[in-house]
Design a protein that fits this description.
Elements lengths: L4 H10 L28 H11 L18 E3 L2 E3 L3 E3 L5 H4 L6 H14 L3 E4 L6 H13 L4 E5 L4 H13 L4 E5 L6 H5 L9 H13 L3 E7 L2 H9 L4 E4 L13 H12 L4 E5 L5 H9 L4 E4 L1 H33 L15
Parallel strand pairs: 3-4, 3-10, 4-5, 5-6, 6-7, 7-8, 8-9, 9-10
Antiparallel strand pairs: 1-2
Helix pairs in contact: 1-12, 4-5, 4-12, 6-8, 9-10, 11-12
Bound molecules: flavin mononucleotide.
Flavin mononucleotide binds next to loops.
């Protein structure tokens, strides 16, 4: 019998991945880093969820939108909906070893492909974490995975960019905000902040290898403009799911000001607390081109493997379609602030 999301969640709970709360909002897991929570008091994780909850869509029923188009293209990647699975690394210490690293990346990369989307894959200590994701990207082919490299020293980043190219990837990212990750420091492998010149050098190397480059972890227009100035092809507005600094705003709060500065010059992705198709539509209305989702995909992978990941993505697509019908939005590429209730 086909799996249901309810069954998947029950299985993930049984494997002890986290508490699998009805609302994944960072309340029960405050401070659980390593783990699935947010840093410190968990305020930043909760701010993601509450910022989104404060944004509402306006229904519009007098229209002719019967079959809205959810498909799009971001950085040359064709997507059945504007969604990329967020990279999650350290399954052994963050998800209590509920799955092997390779098994996890296989479920994510292939499950995303089954649903017509793409997965981000992580970098971490030890290096096997990145290799596991790249091995899956290579097996799947066609560059349909986006590896995220940690902000190590530039030479080590370049090596990893070459590995990504070798695995057939076309888009790579760097989670610049990992400089705040306690887990890297615990493991004696801190990452480093980058100047705009450092970034420009790294991005040049990526472009030289034919790779588009995305900077993840941007929370303000100043950094956004610097990254685009350094040549970034895309940004992920993100606070790393609230895991790198307590007391920062929710991503939905900062997204409009960032979009105002760089919309059209670089692809804009956003993550943190997005859980439903309506949430995805809100992100587009606030200026994003697409969304990344982390923890719920981890639960889907642990509870249902590849099938669970595909099922969650398909559910989001159906919910997005429903939200578009209810707001009279014919095409995700036309979504804008007019969809919001002011
Ligand atoms: C357990 C865990 C591990 C993560 N590992 C990484 C990682 O290796 N690289 C990265 O860029 N982001 C990592 N993230 C952050 C996610 O990519 C993403 O930004 C965040 O989870 C989005 O918030 P959400 O989980 O509320 O959807 C991790 C998040 C969690 C919860």
């Amino acid at each position: 019998m086909a799996l249901s999301l309810k069954e998947i969640r029950a299985r993930a709970l049984a494997k002890g991945v986290c508490r699998v709360c009805p609302a994944c909002d960072g309340r029960a897991c405050s401070g659980e880093v390593p783990g699935m929570g947010g840093a410190g008091t968990g305020l930043s994780f909760r701010a993601n969820v509450s910022a989104l909850a404060g944004i509402r869509l306006e229904t519009r029923l007098v229209h002719q939108v019967h079959f809205p188009r959810t498909g799009t293209e971001i950085l040359g990647l064709r997507l059945s909906l504007p969604l990329i699975v967020a990279p999650i690394g350290g399954i052994s210490f963050n998800l209590g070893g509920a799955m092997g690293e390779a098994e996890y990346q296989e479920a994510i990369v292939f499950g995303a492909a089954d649903a017509g989307i793409v997965a981000g894959t992580p970098d971490a200590v030890p290096p096997e974490v990145m290799r596991a994701g790249l091995a899956m990207a290579e097996r799947l082919g066609e560059g349909r995975a986006v590896p995220f490299v940690k902000p190590w020293e530039p030479e080590k980043i370049r090596e990893k960019l070459e590995m990504a190219r070798g695995a057939g990837c076309r888009v790579v990212g760097c989670d610049l905000d990992s400089i705040g990750l306690v887990t890297l420091r615990i493991m004696g492998n801190p990452a480093y902040a980058k100047s705009q010149d450092d970034l420009a050098g790294i991005i040049d190397s990526a472009h030289g290898l034919g790779l588009s480059f995305v900077v993840k972890g941007i929370m303000g227009p100043g950094d956004a403009v610097s990254c685009v100035g350094a040549g970034a092809d895309g940004l992920v507005v993100s606070n790393h799911g609230g895991r790198v600094l307590d007391s920062v705003p929710g991503t939905a709060e900062v997204l409009p000001a960032i979009a105002e500065k760089i919309k059209g010059r670089a692809a804009i992705l956003v993550d943190g607390g997005f859980r439903s198709g309506a949430d995805i539509l809100k992100a587009l209305a606030l200026g994003a081109d697409g969304v990344m989702i982390g923890r719920p995909f981890a639960i889907a992978a642990v509870g249902g493997g590849r099938e669970g990941v595909a099922l969650y993505a398909e559910t989001l697509r159906a919910q997005l379609e429903q939200a578009m019908i209810m707001t009279g939005c014919p095409d995700v590429r036309e979504a804008g602030p007019g969809l919001l209730h002011r």
